[in-house]
Amino acid sequence: MLTRTVGFCLSAKKWRKMNLSAFAELCRNHGIDVVQIDLNRPLPAQGPFDIIIHKLSDLMVEAQYNSQSQQLLASFQEYTAAHPYTVLLDPLPAMRKLLDRFVSYRIVGRLQTAIPGDQVCCPPYVEINTSDLEEIQEAISRHNLSFPFICKTQVAHGSSSHEMALIFNEEGLKDAHAPCILQSFINHNARLYKVFVVGSSHFTVDRPSLKNFPLGPSDSKTIFFNSHDVSKPESSSHLTEDMRGSPSSFQLCCIISSLS
User: Fold this and answer.
1) DSSP string over 40-73
2) Beta bridge partners of 132
3) Distance between terminal CA atoms of the chain?
4) CB-based contact 74:39 (threshold 8 Å)
5) Which candidate, 65, 87, 80, places its Cα nearest to that of 158?
6) How far is residue 219's CA from residue 170's CA, in Å, rounded to a whole number?
7) How far is CA 77 from the centre of its chain?
8) d(CA 196, CA 138)
9) 208: nearest Cα among 225, 198, 194
10) Is 217 helix (H, G, I), strand (E, B) or coil?
């Protein structure tokens, strides 16, 4: 029987959380070897691999300012380039797009234009690269944003990327720290639906989310929150409330205002 080798490039914490030791045993019973990849060792000595499944987003962010992380990432890229028949989940160029909210939002904006009908919706947003309030207000007006706004960091990974804000008025714009995204907040009945696609199959999970807020400017102070405290399966926050039923403000569409 032909043996396949799957390499997992994950942190020890992620390995334990996913219980991959039990998964590896199951795979071995079906002729599949599972290898835990150590980036600090030469990859050719650990392979060859039919598939590499990785979680390198931390390393990719760190490589922007850390020379050791740059070297580890470069070695990984050299190996995958030299082994084009190894399936890489996910391709690093695709991941780089998702790590930058400026880039990923532009992609969804283009999809909204390219796909007819209302299957893909992207609420109005603006990229903020300045602390000048007049420039920010002008950009908001030009892009037809409406209060309240949700404010997110440009980088879509790491602990700081989960720190967000809900801004209710022009005074609150001082709480938007560039580089960041401002986007019109869409009421969605405190429910968030995440869709995962694998080949031709898809899986949907239901998560808690921010409760509804009155539309338009108000005197409310800016609300700062961590999206992990709001939209994880085990989350419990005063910012969420369980509103049963389907979100009336949505049709089944891809809405990038989710707390990603």
Assistant:
1) TS-STTT---SEEEE--HHHHHHTTT-HHHHHHH
2) none
3) 42
4) no
5) 65
6) 10
7) 22
8) 37
9) 194
10) coil
CA dihedral 253, 254, 256, 260 (to 10 degrees): 120
Closest residue by Cα to residue 48 from 79, 93, 26? 79
DSSP character at residue 208: E
- For the entire predicted model, the pTM comes to 0.79
Cα separation, 108 vs 120, in Å, equals 8
In DSSP terms, which residues pair with 58 in a beta bridge? none
The amino acid that residue 121 corresponds to is C
d(C-alpha 23, C-alpha 31), whole Å: 13
CB atoms within 10 A of CB 260: 15
Q: Locate tokens 């960091």: which residue?
A: 153
Measured distance CA(121)–CA(113) in Å, rounded:
9
Does the bond joining 233 to the residue before it have cis omega, within 30 degrees of 0? no
- Token pair 């108000």 in the structure block, residue: 218
- Going residue by residue through the chain, which has 260 residues, state the pLDDT in tens, using 9 for 90 and above: 568 899 999 888 888 888 888 888 888 888 899 999 999 999 999 989 999 999 888 888 888 888 999 999 999 999 999 999 999 988 898 888 888 999 999 998 888 888 877 777 888 999 999 999 999 999 999 999 999 999 999 988 877 888 999 999 999 999 999 999 999 999 999 988 888 887 889 999 999 999 999 999 999 999 999 998 888 877 778 888 754 444 444 333 444 444 44
